[in-house]
Design goal:
Blueprint: E1 5-9, H1 13-25, E2 29-33, H2 36-46, E3 50-54, H3 62-72, E4 78-82, H4 87-95, E5 100-103, H5 108-136, H6 149-163, E6 168-171, H7 178-187, E7 196-200, H8 206-214, E8 215-216, E9 228-229, H9 231-234, E10 239-243, H10 250-262, E11 264-265, E12 274-275, E13 279-284, H11 288-293, H12 299-305, E14 308-311, H13 322-334, E15 340-341, H14 343-351, H15 357-371, E16 376-377, H16 384-387, E17 392-393, E18 399-400, H17 404-410, H18 415-437, H19 442-449, H20 453-462
Parallel strand pairs: 1-2, 1-3, 3-4, 4-5, 6-13, 6-14, 7-10, 10-13, 15-16
Antiparallel strand pairs: 8-9, 11-12, 17-18
Helix pairs in contact: 2-3, 6-7, 13-15, 18-19, 19-20
The structure holds adenosine-5'-triphosphate and magnesium ion (MG).
Length: about 475
């Protein structure tokens, strides 16, 4: 653990030195400033844990510093030093959010007690926030289901990788558990006590995503009525989770790369650099190496985020885990009904190819729990396409069931014509299935199909899928 950092600000350098000596002896790292401007810069670049400031200083005064500190980090305790004459203004600073105030004539122990209390308060706030996070969900390794050899190897790698400070890239098809693994990396890392900050790189247009990531200063653009720290800043000393990193626009890739190299960021519209210490875990279901070859992803960023790659196998390659998952989800969604599967249902699960991986299995078990009449989940509680057995593979992972009836319907036709009919049938049910899976969301379905939205839309119209 590093020592807690105290920023000491006073226009009298004797005062600053005295405080630094006392607090240095007490085990704090002291940052010092004899004017408000330098203090503001240190505040941003060095992220102290406590600020101790004189109230009356020429130029940027204690009050302004306090406001700025609170804006930067509402949990940063600020202790104001004031002469007895200005006790009223001291009270005013407390109303503005100062943690405490000290008279100029403070004793050594008064100073030590005040700083210690401020730090303890800060620690409590941070801990509470973390606990709250953990109560919602814990992401220990024990939360990860899987005993198959492939997954056992993944867990071994995860444990070692988490302990290191290396940036990690989690790869795998949709629904294979990438986010869960990213959270487990954080929970098993030395940074577990700090923030885990997820960013969905696919969710926002470039300019919005930039100000989300890097933050912005007041007035940086229309609507920026107050300054706001970015997600990278919020992940300081913790883990930044870049989900769907392949979708990060090229321009932002460059900016992110620079931030990671220099360990500093500048808010949009800001002038000063802010130090950031983040560990990056990224995830994608795309082939990032290929994106690099195609010029869609910056090679240097690729190497920077991919120090250790964790590849999650598709569920169909860990058939041994399917029952394990099914039972775990049955417990989760069955509540206290004490449900069980019959053998046929389990056999159907193991025969199915699970294009949507663990998430699909989870949804189907949830649905089955709702449909099951008695204490047993039966085959009939599963959707037809699961029961139709090995789906015909189309486009690698995804599949649609082949229908014998389709073959029968075309048996009288010449092969080229029959083939055209099959293709149309397959294509339309493939698209319908994809649309269903994405709740009718054309953009998401198009993305999953790997074609652009317009093309997808045209096909939807062609096959009258709406
Ligand atoms: N090994 C596992 N143990 C327990 N639950 C799992 C496991 N893998 C996945 N899940 C569950 O499956 C669901 C999908 O997982 P997750 O969201 O992590 O997938 P993903 O790979 O991020 O998918 P996408 O690419 O679509 O974002 C979640 O509800 C998750 O809790
Ligand atoms: Mg995900």
């Amino acid at each position: 653990m590093t020592n807690p950092r105290v920023l000491i600000v006073d226009d009298e350098s004797d005062m600053v030195e005295n405080c630094a000596r006392i607090l240095g002896r007490a085990g704090y790292d002291c940052l010092t400033a004899t004017d408000g401007n330098r203090a503001l810069r240190l505040l941003e670049s060095d992220r102290p844990d406590v600020v101790l400031t004189d109230l009356k200083m020429p130029g940027v005064g204690g009050m302004e510093l306090l406001r700025h500190a609170r804006e930067l980090d509402p949990d940063l305790p600020v202790i104001v030093i004031t002469g007895f004459a200005s006790i009223e203004s001291a009270v005013a600073t407390v109303k503005e959010g100062a943690f405490d105030y000290l008279p100029k004539t403070f004793s050594i122990s008064q100073l030590e007690v005040a700083v210690d209390r401020a730090l303890r308060q800060r620690r409590l706030t941070l801990e509470n926030r973390n606990l709250r996070g953990q109560l919602q969900e814990t992401f220990g390794l024990d939360q990860l289901i899987g005993r198959s050899p492939l997954m056992t190897r993944v867990f071994e790698l995860l444990k070692k990788a988490a302990r290191s400070e290396a940036n990690i890239l989690v790869l795998g098809e949709s629904g294979t558990g990438k986010e869960l693994v990213a959270r487990a990396v954080h929970a098993n890392s030395p940074r577990a006590g700090q923030a885990f900050v997820p960013v969905d790189c696919a969710s926002l247009p470039e300019n919005l995503l930039e100000s989300e990531l890097f933050g912005h200063e007041k007035g940086a653009f229309t609507g920026a009525v107050r300054s706001k720290p970015g997600l990278i800043e919020l992940a300081h000393r913790g883990t930044l989770f870049l989900d769907e990193i392949a979708e990060l626009p090229l321009g932002l890739q460059g900016k992110l790369l620079r931030a990671l190299q220099e360990r500093q960021i500048r808010r949009v519209g800001g002038t000063s650099m802010i130090n950031v210490d983040v560990r990056v875990v990224s995830a994608t279901n795309r082939d990032l190496r290929e994106a690099v070859t195609k010029g869609q992803f910056r090679e240097e960023l690729y190497y920077r985020v991919n120090v250790i790659a964790i590849q999650l196998p598709p569920l169909r390659e860990r058939v041994g885990d399917i029952k394990l998952f099914a039972h775990a989800f049955l417990k989760k969604y069955g509540g206290d009904r004490n449900l069980a599967f019959d053998d046929d249902a389990l056999a159907a699960f193991e025969a199915y190819a699970w294009p949507g991986n663990v998430r699909e299995l989870q949804n189907i078990v949830e649905r089955a729990c709702a449909l099951a009449d008695g204490p047993t989940v039966k085959r009939r509680d599963l959707p037809d396409y699961v029961l139709e057995g090995e789906p015909l593979r189309v486009d690698g992972a995804r599949g649609t069931p082949a229908h014998d009836s389709q073959i029968a319907a075309t048996s009288g036709l010449p092969l080229p014509e029959a083939r055209e009919r099959w293709m149309k049938e397959l294509e339309s049910s493939y698209l319908r299935d994809l649309l269903e899976r994405h709740g009718g969301n054309v953009s998401a379905a198009a993305k999953a199909a790997g074609i652009d939205r317009k093309t997808f839309h045209r096909l939807v119209t062609k096959y009258q899928l709406r």
